[in-house]
Amino acid sequence: MDQLLIVTTGGTIDKIYFDDKSDYQIGDPQIGRMLDELGVAFRYTVIPIIRKDSLHITAEDRELIRATVAAQPARHVLITHGTDSMVETAKVLSTLDGKTIVLTGALSPARFRGSDAEFNIGCAVGAVQSLPPGAYIAMNGRIWDPAKVRKNVDANRFEAAG
């Protein structure tokens, strides 16, 4: 992997909570800070394009994400994304050829102690380097084909669809 392109779209991974009533806003992308702290041995570029909860990501937003990834020369792409509509975005990105694209996120904000963000990002970084071209989801310690996965909201995890 020559260079990793990271596209951030918001989601829980970047949320900042302000009170006990769950009032929040999407903050600055956390992934660059996390990778710097971990001392990774690869070059990366972060392009923040939207800051939304994934429940609010529209078809137009998905096309913007797709166009952004398509316009970049990088073949390895990691996208941080909210978990609620990650599968839909991955399906849109699966139409791109010649790129390995891995979407990941977190079920609790990266700023929180015990967040799954660092683990999911680590899995995604490994996956983007080792998988063939295509679009994938890295969540809960597994790599998923977006056509065969769903988020189980009640259990708060990803699982095989069907």
Protein model, in words:
By secondary structure, this protein is of the alpha/beta class. The chain has a single domain, classed as Rossmann fold, CATH 3.40.50. 27% of the residues lie in helices and 31% in strands. The protein has four helices and ten strands. It has helices at residues 31-38, 59-71, 86-93, 117-130; strands at 3-10, 15-17, 24-26, 43-52, 76-80, 100-104, 134-139, 142-144, 149-152, 157-160. Strands 4-1-5-6-7-8 form a six-stranded mixed sheet, sandwiched between helices. The radius of gyration is 14 Å and the shape is globular. The relative contact order is 0.19. The model has no long low-confidence stretch (mean pLDDT 89). Pfam families: Asparaginase. One of its GO terms (molecular function) is asparaginase activity.
Search tags:
31% strand; alpha/beta; six-stranded mixed sheet; single chain; 10 strands; globular; Rossmann fold; 162 residues; two-stranded antiparallel ribbon; 4 helices
Give the SSE layout.
Layout lengths: L2 E8 L4 E3 L6 E3 L4 H8 L4 E10 L6 H13 L4 E5 L5 H8 L6 E5 L12 H14 L3 E6 L2 E3 L4 E4 L4 E4 L2
Parallel strand pairs: 1-4, 1-5, 5-6, 6-7
Antiparallel strand pairs: 2-3, 7-8, 9-10
